[in-house]
Amino acid sequence: MTVDDLGGRRASGTPSVVRSLRTHGQRLVPFSVEFNPPRDAAAEARLWRTVREFERMHPAFVSMTYGAGGTTRDRTVRVTGQLAGETTLLPVAHLTAVSHSVAELRALVGSYADAGICNVLVLRGDPPGDPLGEWVRHPDGVEYAEELVRIVRDLGDFHVGVASFPEGHHRSPDLDHDTRHLAAKLRAGAEYSITQMFFDVEHYLRLRDRLVALDPEQGAKPIIPELMPITSLRTVRRAEELCGRPLPAAVVDRLTAAAGDGPEEDRAAVRAAGIEIATEMAQRLIDEGAPCLHFITLNFAKATTEVLTNLGYGVTAAPVPA
Ligand SMILES: Cc1cc2nc3c(=O)[nH]c(=O)nc-3n(C[C@H](O)[C@H](O)[C@H](O)COP(=O)(O)OP(=O)(O)OC[C@H]3O[C@@H](n4cnc5c(N)ncnc54)[C@H](O)[C@@H]3O)c2cc1C
């Protein structure tokens, strides 16, 4: 079955993420951004303002996460399709196995193909409600992301990415187990991985070393680091929820020192410290040869564009493909 068989519009003329990274033609390391599906019309309007802000800076790709709720899921497919059809951006649709049969997953991939999307980030997802709760596979679904990578690849001309975990996935007993399963997902047909966010660049570098040592062929595939600029102490808690583990003490100390001892958090100082931390991390990743910088935006442009501006990125003419 080809993408054409799955949907009306042909998506196979769309570049893959890896090709976009290789041919991006910017003088700086490519960057990319992650959006979340909007929950209502007001959130959707805000998302579009953010999308247009980033469009002027020519990210290598933009990704749209995939949630657990039914209405949001329909909105996700629609909005991701609009990114493909109504912008100059290259969208990547996240796809999770949570609460889906294989037949439903195939139909979803068909909807993406129909909307002109051929880049999919394949994930298992977390149990709805409690991400750390017991994982229960759908009776007609898949157990691990690796199986879903094969399913999506078998459906046609899709370009697949997967998740990687610099500090190990919270369900992995140790880092070696974690790295073996990452290599298996890549061998199953994934072309790159995007990491979970982290706040110590050493963890990213060690993941890269482990993967190269285990399997040089898979280790040569891009590992795209994910960053999230911290803008308040509340974002620290959000970051810890998303990482499933506490932030490094050195980072928390810097942010709490900026917050001050007063009854109110010094929000401007915390924000400045958060932007500075993200800028330092991004610069180190560039120096260490990261293939791209992927930013969690929570659908706001300001913090990420400040980090990018600090690094010398700006509004540019469309890059000439290399
Ligand atoms: C960049 C990124 C984007 C994300 N986007 C979303 C999103 O849009 N929506 C969402 O709900 N969640 C998202 N997540 C969260 C993700 O779904 C969870 O972290 C989930 O718990 C793991 O997904 P996975 O695809 O890595 O799972 P898997 O690769 O299936 O791994 C799950 C666990 O099983 C282990 N494992 C894998 N294969 C085997 C095997 N054969 N035998 C034994 N153990 C095995 C792994 O080591 C790991 O511990 C994202 C995560 C990242 C890093």
UniProtKB/TrEMBL annotation:
Family: Belongs to the methylenetetrahydrofolate reductase family.
KW Zinc (keyword) present: no
Obligatory cofactor(s): FAD
Pathway: One-carbon metabolism; tetrahydrofolate interconversion
InterPro entries for this protein: FAD-linked_oxidoreductase-like, Mehydrof_redctse-like
Pfam families cross-referenced by the UniProt entry: MTHFR
Record protein name field: Methylenetetrahydrofolate reductase
Domain of life: Bacteria
CDD domains to which the protein is assigned, alphabetical: MTHFR
Reactions catalysed: (6S)-5-methyl-5,6,7,8-tetrahydrofolate + NAD(+) = (6R)-5,10-methylene-5,6,7,8-tetrahydrofolate + NADH + H(+)
Keywords per UniProt: FAD, Flavoprotein, Oxidoreductase
